[in-house]
Design brief:
InterPro entries: CELF1/2_RRM2, Nucleotide-bd_a/b_plait_sf, RBD_domain_sf, RRM_dom. With 188 residues, this protein is α+β, with helices and mostly antiparallel strands. Helices cover 42% and strands 14% of the residues.
Length: 188
Amino acid sequence: MHHPIQMKPADSEKSNAVEDRKLFIGMVSKKCNENDIRVMFSPFGQIEECRILRGPDGLSRGCAFVTFSTRAMAQNAIKAMHQSQTMEGCSSPIVVKFADTQKDKEQRRLQQQLAQQMQQLNTATWGNLTGLGGLTPQYLALLQQATSSSNLGAFSGIQQMADNEQGAFSTVVPQLTELGIRRFYVKA
């Protein structure tokens, strides 16, 4: 054989992965250095790594990462230190939690993209509806509620109001049909 066999645990089998032991520390005084953070968290166990996040100018960003030897040590640090004190120059108490994993970061990024797309879609939808000038504020509120929440039942109020304002309603119905809204429900 030219290459020896390599064996290692699968990602799901890692019992002591760094992400299970790494803490994010927020609302840290910008005057603190790595040694100060180490001293603050050393009572909870052996610290493998301690790093203050710094900007391009080398100044502290007011947060740090601490990696413990075991998950139990990290959990004890969270229980004891989270919101236990407000450090100098900080507006709220210290935040101590498990650091986000790459999976968490990716999921948050996807959620932000989805929210932006929904906002753009909502803006585009309302921007494309012409002839809304003749509608009363009640119509506009019901239309927006119905389309933003996919609540077609909200159109019952629109149909009831239509009896009073046939002209304005008749200009909106074709536009709603173009948007794929074809059913109107009336409460009996």
